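Q: For a teaching handout, I want to show students what a protein-ligand complex looks like in token form. Below are the inputs, and the small molecule is adenosine-5'-diphosphate. Please produce the holo structure.
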Amino acid sequence: MFVEGSAAGLRADEFVLSNLSPSVAQRRFALGVVLVLLVVFIIVAGPLSSMPLRRVDAFVPAYGTAIFLIDSITAALLFAQFSVLRSHALLALANGYFLTALLAIPWTLTFPGVLAPEGGLGGGLQSTVWLYVLSHAGFALFAIVYTLLKDADPMEALSPRSIRARVLTTVGSVTALGCCATVFVTAGHAFLPRIMLDTAEVSYLWYYVVGPMAGLFVVALVLLWLRHRSVLDLWLMLVLFAYIIEISLTAFPIPYRFSVGWYAGRVYGVFSGSFVLVTLMKEVTMLYGELLRAVVGQRREREVRLLTGDAVAATVAHEIKQPLSAMTMDASASLRWLDRATPNIDEAKAALQQIVNNGHRMGAMIDNIRTLFKTDARIRTSLDVNNLIREALALVRYDLQTHRVAVQTDYNQSLPPIEGNEVQLQQVLVNLITNAIDSMATEDGDRVLSLRSKVYDSSCLMVSVEDVGKGVEPSAIDLIFKPQFTTKANGMGMGLSICRSIIEAHGGQLWVTANLPRGAIFHFTVPAHRQH
Ligand code: ADP
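A: Here is the structure, written as tokens, with adenosine-5'-diphosphate included.
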């Protein structure tokens, strides 16, 4: 049920209520419960307490079943916590609950009037009373053991097998103890000290038995008060407190059965059983919710990672296609220069130099794609936007020539520098220019690419890449920036989405407008570099 040491470096024991410190709200709530329990106690403990009420025969079996269910479920949840935290204290507390659950069965069956008028299982009046005492004293002792052991180190080296063995051994021992006690108090009821004379009268021994039993609860409560630390401790203190009230109601004024005090005592009994159960259930539900959220989150993260993986692959392919074809063309050109009757060494060298430049650029680009998908800071330098445009145009000059595209430039010569990543911004420009060329390549008429740089909004620079191509359909204006949207036969649809993330990472914006009468204008802004 619980997992330890998840991928996020979290530990299971950071979440369970036997380790969490109670919040102020939880403390206040507990205090409120104490006050309510006290007020109700004061109301019913007075003269009202001995007022007889109607005898409801179904009450005792219903009460016994409720205690059995509540305590056994609480025990099961505490055993589950023990299996995670391996704390002896939790094991003791779980066994305490298990004991009270177990003894609730013979208590109910021996109660006079449930199975037989004098009490079932061959027991008598004394059997029920002694089972009540044993169950309560047993729980108080287990609670004391819990309190004394709760700050001890957990049993680190326990394997799941030995955890199971410990649970089974202790459960076995408690069961054996419970069975022996039941046999002893039923078969041997005639030998038991008579602490109760009849349903309305107790012997003097009663106080010597119930007094120390209540004393055990007080000791447990005081010890826990001194050592309390966790949410579980807080709720257990409430449980002990409710038990003390229950004992005061059912044992200290002479316990007339089916009187107001007696009924109220039983209700407190159910309450004291439920406090820990309710909080454990709440915790299990909360943990389940957390687990669900974690699993969903993990799955989403995995999907995003896969998506990122796809995006990286597509980006690499997209980005290296252009320099690679430029390199092939440069290589063919240099071969042609060298193949001539009189080889033109200078031209061949220039073409080879372009290959070297493109090779470097491709290397830088791949590095950059890696950093694009990482969150660490990218290298930024002070850059001149006009230079960036010139360099980008140089990189695509073959494409421009091949498609007979005329270039017009309109640079603002007094632009302030910007701060950014040179390769990334060049990537943006090359992408926009290549898209513009592609868009014009399918159209008839003059092909003119205009590049402009200017000041925008006083603190930014703006670059515009203008073409007279087929333009962007108004319905596609937002779509084109989405990954994998393409209208080209062998397009990847990654270029613009990457451009936008690069520009946004630089604190700018990238958008498109129509170029009338035809074509598209892509604009991007980058903040000017503030000199300190
Ligand atoms: P790809 O170029 O692989 O298709 P992009 O993300 O760069 O990926 O572009 C996405 C789509 O945006 C293109 O397929 C095209 O339909 C549209 N587009 C981009 N630039 C222009 C432009 N200058 N003119 C017209 N349409 C364009």
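A: Two things your students might notice: The pocket of adenosine-5'-diphosphate is lined by residues 431, 435-436, 439, 467, 469-472, 480, 485-488, 491-497, 520 (CB under 6 Å). The chain has three domains: 12-276, 322-376, 381-527.
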